Amino acid sequence: MNTPRHIICRRENFPYRRDNLYEINVSGDGTLLSVSSWRKRSGDGDEAGEGAAEGERVHEGSVYVSLGETKTFSLEELFAKQWEACTVFCLACDEETGAPLGFYNRTAFSMASRVRDHTFRGFTATNLLFLYVPFEDATFADCSIVSTMGEGGVVLSDTLAFEEKTISGSSGFDYASLYDYVPRIVWDEDAPSEVEAEGTANLAFTVLDNSGQVLEDHAVNVYLSSDGGYLPRTKIPVTNGRGTARIHAMGLGKGERVCLKIGFRWFVNDTVKELEVV
User: Fold this and answer.
1) What is the value of pTM for the model shown?
2) What's the confidence (pLDDT) of residue 115?
3) How far apart are CA 24 and CA 155, in angstroms?
4) Phi-psi region for residue 255, left (φ > 0), alpha (ψ -120 to 50) or beta?
5) How far is CA 205 from CA 154, 185, 202, 220, 241, in A?
6) Which phi and psi angles does 210 have, rounded to 5°?
C-alpha cells in the first residue's frame, strides 16, 4: 500500500527558517492541514526563565514569538488548483519571517513556465512544505510531506511522525527521489515491441505505489503521448492499478519506429516504450 513519508530536510548554510518553530498537523479525516508558526525570541531574555508572554510559547528552554494565527488549508482549496496524481504542491513562506503564506501547484507552474528552482524564489518566496499527491482521491493523510529547515528550525506534530535527513540541494523537491513519494508506471513484460504497418498494438501497463505494490482501490489518470502514429485515447482513468494503451501505426511504414510515452499529467514522459513497425 502507498506509504506516506514525512521528512525534515536540512542543508548547511540554508539561510531560511533558522530558529523558526512550526506545528504541522493533519486532521478532519485527512481533509485539513494546519500550520502554526513561531520564531525564537532574539536578544536578552530569550530563555524560558524570563517567561513567555501571550502569543509566545516555550520549547526546550527557548521562547518563541508567534508569527500569526494558525493557517488551515482544506482539500477543497487545493482541488481547485489541479489536484492530480504525481503532483507537488508547495507551501510558500515569507522570506524574512518564515510565516506561511499559501499553497501553489509547483508542477503545474513549472510545466507552464519552464522555470527552475532558483527562479521561483523571486515571486513565490521560499517553500516550507513540499506536498506530494500520490493519486486523485488522496487526502492530506495519504500525501508525503517534506519540510526544509534552516539551522535551529523545528517541526512539531501531534499527527505526523517526521524523520530527518540531510540534503545537498536547497529544495525539498528532488526528481531523483520522486518515486519515494508517488506512484510510477511500468509496462507489463508481455507488452509488444512491434506493431504492424497501419495496425494497432495493445500495451498493458501497471501502476505501482511508492512501496512497489500494485496501486489498487485508488483513482489515477494516466496520460499518453507519442512521436508518431495515432492514439485513440491520450488519457486513461485507472482505478485498479492496471490498464491498456492502444496505438495505431497510422501513416507509418515498415522499418520505422515510434516512441510511446506514458505517465501522469505533469510527467507524461515518465515511461517510454519504443515500437518497430513491421
Assistant:
1) 0.88
2) 43
3) 7
4) left
5) 42, 7, 10, 13, 8
6) -75, -5
